[in-house]
Amino acid sequence: MKKYTPLNCSLLFVVATFVFIITISPSCSTKKNHRKLDIERLFMQTTKPEITFTNSGGLEGMNGSRSVSEEVTFTQSTRSELDNNEVLANEMDRLDTTKTYRLSGVVVRAKSNFATERDGRVHVDFDIIAPTDVLDPYWRLTLAPMLIDGDSITPLDTVYVTGEGFRDKQMGDYEAYEDFLNTIVDPSAYDSLFVDWKSLNKEILKVQKRNYSDYKRAYDLMMDYDNWRKMNEMEFLRAQAIARRHKRHVQERYWRQSEKKALRYLQKNTDTLGIYHRYMGKYEKDYTDYLKKQFSFDWLPSITPDINIHAQKDSIMSRSYIPRKYREIHQKGLTLRDIKAKPFTKEDSAKIAKHHYLIDDIVLNDMNIERKGEIFKEVVEFPIPGEEMTGLRLDTVITAEYDFRYPYKQPWKIEKSTKKLEVVLAAMVEGVDKSTFVFPLSDTLTYFIASLAQLADESLVIERKMLHKNMVDNQSLYPDYRTKKSHRFRDIRNPEIFDKIVEAYQIYNNEADLVVDSISIRAYTDLEGLWHENYELSLERAKEVADYLRQKGVRNPVPKAAGEDWPTLARQVQSHRSLLYRQAILDSLTSAIYPDMTEENIKRDYPDDYKIIRQEIYPKLVRFDVTLHINRPGIEENTLQETHREDYAEGIKLLREKEYMLALEKLAKYADYNTALALVCLGYNDKAQEVLEALPETGRNEYLLAIIKARKDNKNEAAKHLQKACQLSPELYSRTRLDSEVRELADELNLWDTLNNQN
């Protein structure tokens, strides 16, 4: 087998990589370098991308669509008539950017529009127009609008208009880059792809053999130790058997000696006491000395002939001489099960593989990984914007056969002091040959901020109040008497109703410029009983109430009798739909000559209806009409009083400064048109509608109601209010185009002609 040489493989990889880069690099042939630039024709024309107001149209010319929102024309015009929307400059006090001004020999049309402010935001709407002259299948047109807010210039989202051929070039570059990426190996695959397997397998076999040798050596040592241990145990058992035999022999010998000596003492008639114990003591000493010598029992504090030698086997064995090679095994008590065979694992393979990598290939692969960004820039000359790219509004592919028009809508948060915004367009063309052409900046679009706060009515700062010399306050009270013929005040079940009269009297008298001259108390009764008796009854009741009011401090109460209340009865009968003979009864009431007879006739002829009248209508006839006659002694006749309200003026100022909540705090208590305007600016539409519906019908009130109804998507009602507003205040017609709610409503329902005809 051929010997592996990393250098040869690395050289092949370098060559392959170089060939790949040369292949995917942009074509730079001699013919390419000498051809004309793709963007050459842009230098031969003056056409450029433009921006214009939405729905403003354009002018078709030889070079495509053009915005004509702003143009300056120098003429020697001698005509005296004016076109529509054209005014003389010397007749205007202030600039109106929606008009065309005619100067001496010059016509200037301002390029401006209005942006509607809502909740501190506006929408800047404009169209980007790119005529076919600036489009080509092999170009990419970059359109970058910029918004100017005071001294601040903010780039808006970019729009890319890409030709089909240009996009094919982009896609081809991405495919080439993808081919490059496919040559890169993930580092996690190094162990399988960039490894010298021959030397790796040899190393693995070597490690496996080493693992076997280590296990075999430990196994043999353990087996030798087992043999040594078993031999020592046999020697111990032999020594134990000898010790037992020696014990028996020694014990019997000393016993025989004690018996012999005792027999001799008996023959001599000598006392034998203690002989046996002395010989047994010798036996114990002789035997224990033997044990100490034979088993080295020196570590025990005391030894007796009855010691269990077998129980001391482990101690004896541990104190016997152990060869050095067996000491660790013996001390740890190891067995054959404690010897672990070391298997060869994947981790071992990976660890060994790291020392058998194809280093040159890995280094080149790592370099390609590190240079992916650089290679991308070299290969992909015109990247396609992705989702992660910020500041991109649109990237579209076109055929370049027609003009390109893109409606651009940009929400923008404005400061309170912002009066206008400006938009300008920067544009650039890129060709597939990397040539570029930067267009001059477009004409500037100017947006004047149109806020609802501009509708504030400053005339309401002056409060105008008509001061009348003489006034009256009329109130109707309905007492509940205990009986039909009761007239005394104490017979009234609800006397507290008269406290309202006392309270009103005190309020008017406490006013510095008002005096209550008198109070007339007119009493009415129902029809039960005779007419003249009811008249007297009403007079008595009026007198009782007058006395009560005098007791409460009311001066000059004048009692008056009204008797039976026939007019109220007729009105109630006319509105009572449940009466079967309502019209006949009504005819009887209106043609009555003798009241008592008329009542009897109704009772007789229409008993069912009479029952309803008595139960439901008669209680409404028993009442008091109280009139307070008020005089303003400080003036000779009715006078118009005007008062400048400082807090109200501050509210108007805050409203114009777009401090809507602070303005509402100042204006809320007045509940007038400006209060409703502040509520509308804050988006409190329901509350604003409630305030407006309580006010008189005026053009401004109707205009705000139209905006509120439009916000609630009640288009028909909104249209009615808008038409009424322009009818009452024709100047609001021009304002309609500034507020998005009613402007969109008029566009959708085609109301412009109707609104204009009301002027």
Give a structural overview:
- The chain is an alpha+beta fold and 759 residues long.
- Helix content is 46%, strand content 19%.
- Strands 8, 10, 11, 12, 13, 15, 16 and 17 form an 8-stranded mixed beta sheet that branches.
- α14 crosses α17.
- 22% of the residues are buried.
- The N terminus is likely disordered.
Question: Would you spell out the secondary-structure blueprint of this structure?
Answer:
Elements: H1 6-24, H2 30-34, E1 50-53, E2 59-61, E3 64-66, E4 71-74, E5 86-88, E6 100-102, E7 106-109, E8 112-117, E9 121-130, E10 139-149, E11 152-155, E12 158-163, H3 164-182, H4 190-193, H5 197-267, H6 275-295, H7 313-319, H8 324-332, H9 346-353, H10 359-370, H11 372-379, E13 392-398, E14 404-413, E15 420-431, E16 436-438, E17 445-451, E18 462-467, E19 470-477, H12 499-510, E20 515-525, H13 531-551, E21 557-564, H14 566-575, H15 582-590, H16 595-605, H17 607-621, E22 623-631, E23 639-644, H18 646-656, H19 660-667, H20 673-682, H21 685-693, H22 699-711, H23 715-728, H24 732-736, H25 740-749, H26 752-757
Parallel strand pairs: 5-6, 8-17, 12-13, 20-21
Antiparallel strand pairs: 1-9, 2-3, 4-7, 6-7, 9-14, 10-11, 10-12, 10-15, 15-16, 15-17, 18-23, 19-22, 20-22
Binned strand content = 15-25%
Tally of DSSP helical segments: 26
Shape descriptor reads: flat
Termini separation comes to: 105 Å
Number of strands: 23
Tell me the quaternary state. Answer: single chain
Helix amount: 40-55%
Q: Strand pairing plus helix content: what structural class?
A: alpha+beta
Would you identify the regions where 5 or more consecutive residues have pLDDT less than 50?
A: 1-33, 56-79, 88-110
Which radius of gyration do the C-alpha atoms yield?
60 Å
* Nearest-integer average pLDDT: 81
Give the biggest sheet: 8 strands, mixed
